[in-house]
Amino acid sequence: MRITQSIISRMGLAQIDGARSRIVRTQEQASTGLRINRPSDDPTDYRTARDLRDAMSQTERFQRSIDLSRTRIRTTENAITDSLDLLAEAKVAALAARNGTAGDGDRAARRMQVESLFESLLDNANRVAPGGGYVFAGTASDTAPFVQTGAFAAGSPAPTVGFVGENSDLEVEIDEGVFMEVTLDGERVFQGGVDVFSTVGNLWQAIDQGDEAAMDAAIGELDLAMAQLRNEQSRIGNEERKADKREERLALQLQELTAQLSSVEDADVFEVFSDLAAQEAALQSSLQVASRLLGPTLLEFL
Amino acid sequence: MAGLTDAIGTAQRGLQVVQRRIGTTGHNIANATTEGFSRQRAVLQASAPNVDGTGAIGTGVEQVSVVRIVDEFAQLRLLSETSRFAGLETHASIYGGVESILNDQLSGGLTDELSGFFDALDDLSNASEPGQPVERGALLASAESLVDTVHRFDERLRELQSGADRGITSLIPEVNGLARQIADLNGRIAEAETRAPANDLRDQRDRLLLELAGQMEFSTLESDSGMISVRFGGVALVDGRTANELTAVVDPGSPNAFDPRFAQVFFQGSGSSFDVTDSIRGGELGGLIAARDDIVGGVIRDLDAFAFTLAENFNAEHRNGLGLVDGAPHDFFADLSGQPNVNDSARNLRISSDVDPAQGGTLDHIATGSVPNPVTGGPGAAPGDLSHVERLKDLRRGTVPIYLAGDATGAPTGSTRSISASLTQLIGDVGQQVRSTERSLEQQQAVLQSAQDRRDSVSGVSVDEEVAGLVLLQTSFQANARVISTVNRLFDDLLAAF
């Protein structure tokens, strides 16, 4: 082939251009630390990276769900625990009132105590989560689920409490297809097998009337009521343990996904820098060769 | 005696030819770096001999003509490879623009917005406050941000497209100018070549043809008179001394398929005018036409299909749920099903007026529940009923019928997959196209370079070669001069004898 100056200069320029554009690519990888800076850098791995990011953000969302749901679980759990304490206190009061030595004044004091226990119990059953919403109202979370009818008055029957909420345990998703109960059906908790309010009401009436047989019956009912609440307490406790387990699993999963994403889209730093060094050397030699070849012609030797 | 006189004449012609050849060599060296110059060579032959009884005595050399050294095939190949390269280069630059708009590897991309929207749904499903006013507001805000991003991408793609459209319109006068100059040179070459090869005019015309090849693909045909006709798509842009015109016009009779406001390229022949837009391939002009109508247009339509898929599927599920206020089904995104097909959905995507307080709706219409409030009897869902949000959340990963570009409403032709997977597919496909275009461009660059090298190898000036020739010519000049001085001495000797 006949070689002319224009061919030499074109070849030299093309090599220099090529070397420069390779350096630009490598430089970008070095500065962003990413092997894939745009989809065209590696369309297949771009899709893999996207899927991984998607899975990561999903995992993070589940972690957030668990975090957010803890307040409601705790509120539910605390309300039940507090109610259990109240029932235990009621039982102590009942036993004291049952004691034959108690005088009239003493009985009145016991009655007042049970009245206030009843009210506290109602407060617990109508407890609101810190973010808002009655935890025992099911989906009707905007209205207090338990409503008292009547008032305490010596000589008359104890007031009653009715459930006006909705019967469901609210659930949130904490992993793909895994749901966790964050609130419990109030009617089942407080008025399921045993109506906690009428149990305490009956106790109040027995103390009011000094009816010892009724007191005994009320004490028996209190035990049943406490068993029912303990059941619900362990139910919500299990949900919280489930959340703890999931949280660990999700953290592991996130770690794994991060590692995978890094292996797909991160640039290998050592490789990038050694590439950069090699490409710089190539550019320099292209420049040197071009400058040497373009200079001489036959004229210099005549 | 006649012999000696003839010898002087022979040497003198030799000197004249050497001088002319030095002229040609000088011309070559002077044009060594002139773009498109083809080296020239004097064509010599031995002049007619004097024939007498003793035989034919040579009368020296004569220059028949000066020709340029060209390889017509290499020239044609250079034209077509130049067109292809310029076309690919335009594609690559447009694709690069599309990719940088859609690129979501860094941040602020459409995928991030889409997952932000589903994240907001997620937060809604975790809300404990009755009626979730905060989370509903946040969901609306993230939906607005998603819609805005779709609009912004659509606008930027359309700007890229109108840029290509303006490019097409501005290239047409350039093409017409080149065609006129080529036609003009055709005339001058035909006239000049009645006397001698018009080497430099031909070089000029080749250079113009190469420039035209950078604008579009065409075929050439040279007539016996040396005139070149330039043809594409069955019409002659240049025919002998006549150049026909191209015009970029917006003609309602032949509208652009994507946007009737875009210009189509018309060929203005003698008395007739017709649309040749689809016949223009390669070159910057062909590249821009493909970029406007196919590349950017295609991505805009893909984005339309994505917007339509999102709105249709989300609305369908949303209508199944209940808001807080009434039992009527509400749309979340403005209903697009009145459109005949998915086209323009990206720019038409909006939040439904039902759920947007700014449009007179209420956030309470966001369908969170599945059954009428059992406590109040409805018709709206209970304020803590978020069971339907789970159904809506499922759309993030659940598979739905996917619309593809150009699909008719109600007839999606894509495979069923998740909405976000369809978005990743869209952007990944663009990446794939960018990559393969870049690869083709690299290859084409090598092919073009080899075509240029081939042309230069034949027609380019080698200074070494010219200098070597000059040395030979110098010797030749000296030798011819020596013949004259020798003959002169012979005459002197002869005269001295008398």
Task: Describe this entry's structure for a reader.
The complex is a heterodimer of chains A (302) and B (498). Chain A is mainly α. Chain A has 2 domains: 5-51 and 267-301; 70-258, Up-down Bundle (f41 fragment of flagellin, N-terminal domain), CATH 1.20.1330. Chain A contains 7 helices and 4 strands. In chain A, the strands form 2 sheets. Chain A has a two-stranded antiparallel ribbon with strand order 1-2. Chain A is rod-shaped. The model of chain A has no long low-confidence stretch (mean pLDDT 88). In chain B, helix 1 (2-30) runs antiparallel to helix 10 (463-496) and helix 6 packs antiparallel against helix 9. Chain B folds into 3 domains: 2-69 and 460-496, no CATH class; 74-95 and 167-292, no CATH class; 98-157 and 296-434. In chain B, a hairpin with a 4-residue loop joins strand 10 and strand 11 (273-275). Chain B is of the alpha+beta class and 498 residues long. The model of chain B has no long low-confidence stretch (mean pLDDT 91). Classes of the chains: A mainly alpha (302), B alpha+beta (498).
In short:
Chain A has 7 helices and 4 strands, in the order αααββββαααα. Chain A is mainly α.
Q: What is the element layout, followed by pairings?
A:
The complex is a heterodimer of chains A (302) and B (498).
Chain A: H1 5-32, H2 43-98, H3 104-125, E1 146-149, E2 160-163, E3 171-175, E4 178-181, H4 186-191, H5 196-209, H6 212-265, H7 269-294
Antiparallel strand pairs in A: 1-2, 3-4
Chain B: H1 2-30, E1 40-46, E2 50-52, E3 55-57, E4 61-68, H2 72-102, H3 110-125, H4 133-192, H5 199-215, E5 219-222, E6 228-232, E7 235-239, E8 242-243, E9 245-249, E10 264-268, E11 273-275, H6 283-320, H7 345-348, H8 387-393, H9 419-459, H10 463-496
Antiparallel strand pairs in B: 1-4, 2-3, 5-6, 6-7, 7-8, 9-10, 10-11
